[in-house]
């Protein structure tokens, strides 16, 4: 296929996202938001910001492995946050 313009690519992406199953789309959007949030935190490296992000992801019941991957928190740190949320 010929190289497409950026606006067309954006439109195709939006159509693809809109066509997703609602549950899959919600997970996709949550992951995309998390990735964007993590990109904005890059360089700052603040532990409390990573923990805040992880808490938000835990509240959305995102996969623990994905949370660890995106936040760079250890499993022990994540379990501690999860326990605090459950208490």
Describe the structure.
It comes from Alkalihalobacillus alcalophilus ATCC 27647 = CGMCC 1.3604. This is Transposase. The chain is mainly α. The chain has one domain (6-86). Helices cover 76% and strands 0% of the residues. Helix 3 (47-59) runs antiparallel to helix 4 and helix 3 (47-59) crosses helix 5. The longest helix is centred in the middle third of the chain and has 20 residues, at 22-41. The chain is elongated and about 50 Å long. The N and C termini lie far apart (54 Å).
Keywords:
87 residues; mainly alpha
Number of separate strands: 0
Shape, please?
elongated
Uncertain stretches? none
Main β-sheet, in a few words? none
Summarize the amount of helix as a percent range. Answer: over 70%
What class, by secondary structure content? Answer: mainly alpha
First-residue to last-residue Cα separation: 54 Å
- The amount of beta strand, in percent, is under 5%
Order of helices and strands: HHHHH
Protein name: Transposase
